[in-house]
Design brief:
Shape: elongated
Number of strands: 2
Strand content: 5-15%
Strand order of the largest sheet: 1-2
Order of helices and strands: HHEE
Radius of gyration: 18 Å
Largest sheet: 2 strands, antiparallel
CATH topology: Helix Hairpins
Oligomer: single chain
Number of domains: 1
Distance between the termini: 37 Å
């Protein structure tokens, strides 16, 4: 059962920073096994949240297109087919 934490509420930058902190702590070699496992689980959750945020950003970027006049506009995204 997942812990109730604020992982989903972190910005992408905050999530990456937290992941970096976790990696640094784990590489330090001074944590007991139980703490290492907790850090690994938190890191896994954070990685998924960051990947999801990147995927959403990619969709938004793909929706932006230039018109013939050089203006940018949003294209509708067809989520079922994964394209515009």
């Amino acid at each position: 059962m997942p812990k109730t934490d604020k992982t989903d509420e972190l910005s992408f930058e905050e999530g990456i920073k937290r992941l970096e902190d976790i990696v640094e702590a784990m590489e330090g070699g001074e944590l007991p096994l139980e703490s290492l496992m907790e850090k690994f689980e938190e890191g896994t959750r954070l990685a998924k949240v960051c990947q999801d945020q990147l995927a959403k950003a990619e969709v938004r970027i793909q929706q932006i297109e230039k018109t013939s006049a050089g203006d940018l506009k949003l294209k509708p995204f067809d989520a079922q087919n994964g394209n515009q």
